[in-house]
Amino acid sequence: MMGKSQRRTLGGKYGWLFWALMLLFIYLWTITGLSFSGIQASAGEVTRSIINGLFHPDWAYVYDGSGEDLLSLILQTLAIAFLGTFVSAILSVPFAFWAARERRKNKMHWRSTSGKFTLVFIRTFPELVLAIMFIKAVGPGSFAGVLAVSIHSIGMLGKLFSEAVENMDRGVDEALTAAGGGRVDVLCLATLPTVMPEFLSFTLYRFEIAVRSASILGMVGAGGIGTPLLFAIQTRSWSRVGIILLGIIIMVTAIDWLSGTLRKKLV
Amino acid sequence: MNQVPERTFMQKYHLKGIGWTIIFILLLFLSSVMTEVNWGEFFSNLGQFFALLGRMANPDWQYTNIVVQPIIETIQMALLGTTLGTLVAVPFAFLAARNLVKSPLVRGGIRFFLNLVRTLPDLLLAALFVAIVGIGPTAGVWTLAVFSFGMISKLFYETVETIDSGPIEALQAAGANRVQIIAFAVVPQVVNNFVSYFLYTFEINVRASTVLGYLGAGGIGVFLQRSLSSFRYDQTAVIIIAILLVVVVIDGLSNILREKLL
For residue A124, which residues of chain B lie inside 8 Å, CB to CB? Predict the structure, then answer.
């Protein structure tokens, strides 16, 4: 039964042949198109060194009180993600109402369509480029990272928030309007309280992603653990790379677990 | 009998809410100190930021011809990376599914490994692979393969866990072995979902692959880095517009295909 319905949707009796040829063509195009530079001779050796570094991490780097050690940079990375997500959550609320469709009836509403397009644009604008632009404005450092996370996260948070607004229960809104509430009353006393748990849950989810991106923003000089990591890779000090990788893995796992627990309580 | 329920001390003075608020404000304050937030500096330098944006608003259209080839390379990198990652992910997904593997030790071990892989951000993997295989699109393909392996194996084993157990039991009763069960009872139920998730991961990889080149892992990112480091923001703008177009087209195509599949 499944095969039949599939064939119907993907065209004709010989539909599978068309798709097979198409796939063959796409993959041939891909494999011939990429210029494989080949793997450099030292690849095996470097891999062994990295794994060796992971098992013999540079423990002295964890804390040396200089403020440039693993612990303080991991905390700085978390601070970038936390502050960036906080600012972005606040900024996303107006975007959400801008992009949210008013019920289902009019599919192409200019306000919601323009809002959705703006969010797509923000989402696609590479975070690294944003970080570099902010570095030009406020100088290298974690503040530029905070700004980059705050602006970039709007793209995704705004989308999730606007979907929450679209799917919310309108009953409370209508009840307040019926009781004579103005637009501000409805927004503050009905709409926002209804969507707040979902907003918080999405923000926590985005925080998990922000922690990951904050840990690589340092590669362009926007603070956090990324700067020493890139430096360690370039200078081939693999035991340093090992300890930083361990730090990132532990940090991300801990944050994912924490945020997952909180989100379960919320929704 | 109309008695108002007694509120505890905690509830009466909203201690829980106040406590959370205090913790939250404290965290915000500590983070601001740690990241050296300086809104004054930000607003006084905002002009510079907008001057940069202004330079980006005048894209150098001559640059379009140069951008086409690396954009295609980016898509090819994403496709190959996603495919390799998926091929490796499939057996792992079957091994991690609760309804196929009964031993919690095997399942737990594999899930732990998958969780570890998923913690690593894409650019970090790119930096490592550039160090291992050298500069070029090969590093990008490897990065995306590992990145999509982590993501796809999780999506896949969650799908496998939601299937109907009827066909499995029927095949078991008929005396089929493990491979036969997977081939004839599991795969037909999940193949559409698998393809859909493959396309979804491909979308994400196209986005990710556009910046991998920044660290030397091939694709359009190489040119992004070149234009940024030579302060040619008009060229950067062309690249960003190209990325936007590609992402929108790929997302659209993949959405149409996925709607047909499900």
Answer: 207, 240, 243-244, 247-248
What confidence tens digit (pLDDT) does each residue in B173-206 have? 998 888 888 888 888 888 888 989 999 999 899 9
Show Cβ contacts of residue B225 under 8 Å, excluding neighbours closer than 6 positions. B213, B214
- Residue ranges per domain, chain A? 2-33, 76-217+257-266
The verdict on a CB contact (< 8 Å) between B243 and A126 is yes
Chain A with chain B: Cβ pairs closer than 8 A: 170
A38 and B CB contact within 8 Å: yes
CATH architecture of A76-217+257-266: Orthogonal Bundle (1.10)
Shortest CA distance from A214: residue in chain B: B121
Q: How many H helices and E strands in chain B?
A: 13, 0
| ipTM for this model | 0.83
Show the 3-state SS of A197-258: HHHHHHHHHHHHHHHHHHHHHHHHCCCCCHHHHHHHHHCCCHHHHHHHHHHHHHHHHHHHHH
The full set of domains in chain B, from first to last, is: 61-261 (1.10.3720.10)
**Does residue A82 belong to the interface with chain B, where contact is any CB pair within 8 Å?**
yes
**Selected residues 168-207 of chain A with any CB under 8 Å from a CB in chain B:** none
Residue B150 clears pLDDT 60, i.e. is over it: yes
